[in-house]
Amino acid sequence: MSVYGTLSSTHSSIRRACLLAACVLTLAAGPSYADEYDATVKDIQSTMGGVPGFVKQFPKAGLPGAWAEVKAIQLSDKTALPPKVKSLISLAVAAQIPCNYCIWSDTQDARRAGATDEEIQEAVAVSALTRHWSTIFSGMQVDFDTFKKEMGGQ
Question: Are the C-beta atoms of residues 129 and 94 closer than 8 Å to each other?
Answer without folding.
Answer: no
